[in-house]
Design goal:
This protein is of the alpha+beta class. Helices cover 28% and strands 24% of the residues.
Length: 518
């Protein structure tokens, strides 16, 4: 017999290794010896009050053995001689599209502009130390996409788009810890995700798929409203039948290419702002109501904040407890910041994007001449501004949080995790009023919600500009572009996902749509 129950465990009781058995026996009014095993289904922390509680959902096995294998099985087939599906991009959407093609009996041929995870490391080192951006291999482009080296957070609200559990089980199948199946806010970490990504590539190759790195698509050869071939940067042309476009939100050359070929695009609302960095102990003390070091059973504390300021949302984005701020530019001449955390989340700093909603219809009148690409051009202008105000390198413009709100230049800055370095700059006057004024009010409001958050010990760093795509590539109910019948826009770049898990689910859906009728 198996019984699923909810348990609430105090921080003190959490220290006991047998506490789940004791609590389960009491809750079910049975003898401890009758419990043959306990499987944790969900775990979260309730720290709203000084008395911290661990919430568990568990399956209690009563005189019955725990299952040794997962209910999820992945039926990968030999597709070496099967019909091909071409996938552009090898981020989460492209990877899961490829895996799903193999399950369905079709051969994925992946074309990725960047490098594999091992070679990609050298280019990330060049950004951090030499301030040089390889436009095809960086924190956004390369095997695994942006998530590989930008945290690996797996939380999603897209519960109706597909089988979320299946995506998680597949990550575990490829080497992720099964803890991601349990945690309310699962996280793999930038130090462990590259190996998982490499294992996914090896599965694709072992079953007959193809993955081509440093293979940039530069043109679509279209006839009779159908892509006949893909042109590569080296001049080669590849004949295609179905194309899944999973290039991510930073592949601006693809948006320009589609626009140049008069293939329909749509301007999309997005968000931009800054990244704020606090010493982790400040966030811990606020969230856990403690002074000094947090209890070792508690993870580095995170937060989620949102407020409406002048009819626009101001909110935290991609919060990274115990993490680092990283340079996420995809071209020289721009500064973009993002955040990441290692699996242990044991760095000294906490950082989070704090961004302002940009309404594509109401907020970008000065950019109307760019048509559907107006949001993209707005993004680019702010990234160029950050580049020049930071000193024309990957050094980022920054300001103490309180100085930003009070409208004065910081005489000096706090220590930072951002490896290329910071330069004091008047972000309060440099950022457009649309963003800057709302951020200033937003930070004050967040300081009221989290006492201690508004502090001179925090820096704000500019700019956080790649939260999502400012362009949508439309598609119909069959997930095809309405004007190009064999083109399947997919994932974040198409405007249909907002993170690793939602992009993976969309990749699977697009694979299923692409092979239909093939």
């Amino acid at each position: 017999m198996v019984k699923e129950i909810q348990l609430r465990i105090s921080l003190k009781d959490e220290e006991r290794s047998d506490i789940l058995i004791i609590k389960s026996a009491y809750a079910l009014d049975i003898d401890k010896e009758d419990i043959t095993g306990i499987k944790v289904l969900r775990k979260s922390i309730d720290a709203r009050k000084p008395k911290i509680i661990f919430n568990y959902k568990v399956a209690v096995y009563i005189r019955e053995a725990l299952p040794k294998t997962s209910d999820y099985q992945f039926d990968y087939k030999d597709v070496s001689k099967a019909k091909p599906v071409h996938i552009i991009g090898f981020g989460p959407a492209g990877m899961y599209a490829a895996l799903r093609c193999i399950e369905l009996g079709y051969k994925p041929i992946v074309l990725e502009r960047g490098k594999n995870v091992q070679d990609r490391r050298r280019d990330l080192k060049a950004i951090n130390q030499d301030h040089f951006v390889n436009e095809d291999s960086n924190y956004c482009f390369g095997e695994g996409g942006a998530g590989t080296y930008s945290d690996g957070k797996l939380y999603t609200r897209s519960l109706k788009r597909g089988d979320v559990r299946r995506i998680f089980e597949n990550l575990v199948f490829h080497g992720a810890t099964d803890q991601i199946l349990v945690d309310a806010h699962p996280h793999i970490g930038t130090n462990k995700l590259p190996k998982v990504v490499q294992n996914i590539r090896e599965t694709i190759l072992n079953y007959g798929g193809e993955v081509h790195f440093e293979t940039r698509v530069t043109d679509f050869i279209i006839k009779a409203n159908k892509i006949q071939a893909l042109q590569l940067q080296n001049g080669e042309e590849i004949a295609v039948n179905r194309v899944i476009l999973a290039t991510g939100h930073s592949a601006r050359d693809i948006f320009y290419l589609l626009h140049k070929k008069k293939i329909a695009l749509e301007a999309k609302s997005f968000a931009m702002g800054v990244r704020v960095e606090h010493p982790q102990h400040i966030i811990d003390s606020i969230q856990y109501h403690c002074s000094g070091e947090r209890n070792e059973l508690l993870p580095a504390a995170s937060y989620s904040l949102v407020n409406q300021i002048n009819n626009r949302g101001v909110y935290s984005f991609c919060m990274c407890p115990g993490g680092f701020i990283v340079p996420a530019a995809t071209a020289n001449g721009e500064v973009v910041v993002n955040g990441m955390s290692p699996s242990k989340r044991n760095n000294l700093y906490a950082n989070s994007g704090i961004v302002v909603e940009i309404n594509a219809v109401a907020d970008l009148h000065k950019y109307e001449k760019f048509g559907v690409l107006k949001g993209l051009e707005y993004q680019k202008n702010l990234e160029k501004l950050a580049f020049t105000s930071g000193g024309r390198s990957q050094v980022a413009p920054a300001q103490r949080l309180t100085d930003f709100v009070e409208g004065k230049l910081s005489e000096d800055l706090n220590p930072t995790s951002y490896q290329p370095g910071l330069k004091s700059a008047p972000l309060h006057s440099l950022l457009p009023k649309l963003i800057g004024s709302r951020l200033r009010k937003g930070f004050q409001a967040f300081g009221q919600k989290m006492k201690g958050y508004y502090t001179s010990e925090a820096n704000i760093v500019g700019v956080e500009s790649r939260t999502s795509s400012p362009v949508c590539i439309p598609r119909n109910e069959q997930l095809e572009h309405p004007e190009v019948s064999n083109l399947f826009p997919c994932g974040e770049g198409g405007g249909y996902a907002g993170g690793i898990i939602s992009a993976a689910m969309d990749g699977e859906r697009c694979a299923e749509a692409a092979v239909s009728g093939l």
